Amino acid sequence: MRTHKSLLPSAFKxxxxxxxxxxxxxxxRMDLAESAGMIKGARRLLEGNGIRTLTVDLGGxxxxxxxxxxxxxxxxxxxxxxxxxxxxxxxxxxxxxxxSIFDFDKVKRPVSLEKKRRPDVFTRVGEAxxxxxxxxxxxxxxxxxxxxxxxxxxxxxxTLRREETLLTMQKTGFDAxxxxxxxxxxxxxxxxxxxxxxxxxxxxxxxxxxxVSLAMVRELGPVMTAIIVAGRTGSAFAAEIGTMKVxxxxxxxxxxxxxxxxxxxxxxxxxxxxxxPFLTLxxxxxxxxxxxxxGVFLLDxxxxxxxxxxxRFLALRDIVWSFVKSTVFALLIAWIGCLRGFQVRGGAxxxxxxxxxxxxxxxxxxxxxxxxxxxxxxxxx
Length: 381
Hints:
12 helices; Transcription Regulator spoIIAA
């Protein structure tokens, strides 16, 4: 042996070493106090000695714990590095228990993996296209399922979960009144203030009222309300159904013969379609009120003149148009929120991703549908 025996720890005894085969006998305790020295000794033992087979005799080991297991792991990996054999013999009952608990035969240090080759741009575009195509197919299928469930509820009203619908209406509508009112009032004040800066130059301060009312009722009121609902309610729909998917409650409903779409989605769709238009009307009123505060306190307008100017330009069809838009927005928000919830696969991380996707998709659909409404209004008057 090139390694002098005096350099090895006292617990190591070389019982036999011939023709590249070594039998190493370990004695004493293999614990925290002794493991550091043993590991160093194991490294010195395997350096340049041409060992092809190493047999470790554990018959003299009085005690073995997880730190002692590191010594055996060091010896085994040293032999694996030279593609040699490694064997254990005569383990005591304590050693057998520890080896069994830590599954020593399967304990290995992580192997450094080669860096994966990044797919080229065509591969990434193809994968994205296939993923979006599958998503589109699922969206169409889910839309059909929702339509069938709604038709069934219309034909058989008794199948509607009334209590769940009323509770969802409360969460979607009444619980959102404070935040909708506050944001709408602030937005109306901002519009009034910014428009007054320009209109003052022409002495047309009174037109601030018509500008705020038309802008909020026709466009900003429905859109801002829908954005708020998407953020607080659409995400809640996705998280609720996604959690039920993870906990297999949706599968349980299906097993019990219930239609998950009719049971979970229809109440949310109806509640959203009913409450969001009224939230929009509430937002319109508070935005006009916010504009009136600016007009009265900064533009020296009277409340009567502001209100009169508002109703002079604001027509009933504008309010109806606002109701129609907000109803469509509500159905889109509830539909996409429930869709993302049903698409959850895996655990909590997937639920978070579905919640984020529900909000982002809702915002996109809101802006897209609002653009279509703008085109329709221009050509249909």
